[in-house]
Each structure stands twice: as C-alpha cells, then as structure tokens.
Amino acid sequence: MELKEIERILKEALKVDGVYAQGENAHFGVIVVSDELAALSKLKQQQAVYAPLMPYFSTGEIHALTIKTYTTEKWKRDRLLHQFS
After folding, report:
1. How many other C-beta atoms lie within 10 A of the C-beta of residue 44?
2. What is the rounded CA–CA span in Å between residue 53 and residue 82?
3. Which region, left, alpha or beta, applies to residue 60 given φ > 0 means left and ψ of -120 to 50 means alpha?
4. CA separation (Å) from 60 to 1, 25, 84?
5. What is the pLDDT at residue 85?
6. How many other C-beta atoms can be found within 10 angstroms of the C-beta atom of residue 19?
7. Which domains, and CATH codes, for the chain?
8. Using an 8 Å Cβ cutoff, are 31 and 12 in contact?
9. Which InterPro entries match (predicted)?
10. Confidence band, pLDDT 50/70/90 cuts, at residue 71
11. Among 17, 78, 26, which Cα is nearest to 5's?
C-alpha cells in the first residue's frame, strides 16, 4: 500500500490538520494531527484511525499500524523531532 493512499484515506475520513505516514511491507506508522482526535481517549483515537483502514487489514495490505496523535499546538512544537514535514 502506498503511503500517500493511507494519508488520503485518513484525511478524507477524519477531521485532521495533518496526516503523515511512513513504513513499508504492510507495516506502517502514522502521525495524525488533530485537536479533536487528540482530545479522545487512546482507545477512541485508535478506533477512529483504524476504522477507515479496516478493509486494508482484511486484504493484508496493512498488517501492522502504529499511531501517534498530536494536537496542532504540540505538533508545531514537536515536529522538528520527526522526519516528517
């Protein structure tokens, strides 16, 4: 699965300010920047991010997904620590 496709799916499904994906061979990580999502419990965050990607888990295109969420303000401060733009 292409990284840009994961980003597109999540941007269309969730109210986010940014999505950054990395990975390969069906093992991916995403950073999701959203004040709304970051306000939820960790379980609700995971459920919200996994839901639009479930068809790709079923087909094996995604085997594992690591999720990090940030508020817009925290992302502005911390983004230099990450290799994402």
Report:
1. 11
2. 23
3. left
4. 9, 10, 25
5. 45
6. 22
7. 3-83 (3.30.300.90)
8. no
9. BolA, BolA-like_sf, BolA/IbaG_stress_morph_reg
10. very high
11. 26
